[in-house]
Write a structure and sequence with these properties.
Layout: H1 3-13, H2 19-27, H3 33-43, H4 48-87, H5 89-95, H6 103-116, H7 122-142, H8 149-158, H9 163-192
Length: 193
């Protein structure tokens, strides 16, 4: 039995006032997300508006936690590099920058060294190309076609995009996709029932 079927069974078994919480929990699961959780809720008998809201909220809360954590991790790494650059000229020599370079120049050079290295995965290279081509709005809105919002938002935050910008566009994407699925599935259920 797959996870979607388990959530559908759970929604059918719990009291009505708990069903939105189960749908929100389903929305927090990668690959189920707001879209899948919306479908689970509507098929489980929830009002489509309640299903969409619960699914989107669950998905967004998960994204909020992940973006906050990955943004904090990136900040810690960048700050550690700045401290190292200020404390040790060998970091400047390693990064290929000139002695006396500012910490920001040193970090930029380190980032360029990393970008040029072969250690980046093919998926990260594709992600960076998509980010360069479509920007944060495009990656956020089109991302769910390829990757869960949890992965996309974490990669955006880790690549240096501001936390509030990532959260803003992810909220729009989550709401849009959840509403789209809610309208389609709600219409089908309404016309069949």
């Amino acid at each position: 039995m797959d996870i979607v079927a388990r959530f559908q069974d759970l929604v059918a078994q719990v009291p009505e006032f708990l069903q939105p919480f189960i749908v929100a929990l389903a929305g927090a699961v990668p690959f189920v997300e707001g879209e899948g959780a919306t479908v689970i809720g509507i098929i489980g008998g929830l009002n489509p508006v309640v299903a969409v809201a619960a699914a989107a909220i669950g998905n967004f809360l998960c994204v909020l936690v992940l973006v906050t954590l990955s943004s904090g991790a990136r900040s810690a790494i960048v700050n550690r590099r700045r401290v190292a650059a200020n404390a040790d000229d060998s970091v400047l020599a390693w990064s290929g920058t000139r002695p006396g370079a500012t910490p920001d120049e040193t970090i930029a050079a380190m980032d360029e060294d990393y970008a040029a290295s072969d250690s980046k995965s093919a998926r990260m290279v594709k992600f960076q190309r998509a980010l360069d081509k479509y920007g944060v709005p495009g990656v956020s809105l089109l991302g769910p076609l390829l990757l869960p919002t949890q992965f996309t938002s974490t990669m955006l935050a880790a690549s240096g995009v501001g936390k509030s910008r990532v959260l803003f566009w992810q909220a729009i994407a989550i709401a849009a996709w959840s509403i789209l699925f809610g309208v389609v599935v709600g219409s089908v259920v309404h016309s069949v029932g």
